[in-house]
């Protein structure tokens, strides 16, 4: 059974950092672009950033461009999202999903969603 499992969320103070993981099982992540999304309370889920199979990055949310780092580890079959300089408005459930080899200009056509991991930024 193919699935993605996110982890690494938690409670962090403003300005802090977290590293989220997106572990794949039942298939190889190598062949897919990995997208990261978030859903804040009372809001719709939105695309944050994507990493293609060649390691190329596509930002869907410009507010994170200089604060979030996306990567992938082929040996671990896992994608990562490093969050830094966190702000209260980054509070959300973070999800990963996959699509074809490239990220695409818009955050669409992703599938195989994980269950999400909660990130709470509060003092």
Features:
four-stranded antiparallel beta sheet, 123 residues, six-stranded mixed beta sheet, mainly beta
Q: What does this protein look like?
A:
This protein is mainly β and 123 residues long. It is built from no helices and ten strands. It starts with a strand and ends with a strand.
Give the helices and strands, then pairings.
Blueprint: E1 3-7, E2 10-12, E3 18-25, E4 33-39, E5 46-51, E6 57-59, E7 68-73, E8 78-83, E9 92-99, E10 117-121
Parallel strand pairs: 2-10
Antiparallel strand pairs: 1-3, 3-8, 4-5, 4-9, 5-6, 7-8, 9-10
Report the mean per-residue pLDDT as an integer: 96
Uncertain residue ranges: none
Estimated radius of gyration: 13 Å
Largest sheet: 6 strands, mixed
Tell me the fraction of residues in β-strands, as a range: over 45%
Shape: globular
Reading the helices and strands in chain order gives: EEEEEEEEEE
Instruction: Please report the total strand number as a whole number.
Output: 10
Cα distance, first to last residue? Answer: 40 Å
Number of contiguous helices: 0
Structural class, by secondary structure, is mainly beta
Compact overview of the structure:
The protein has 123 residues and is mainly β.
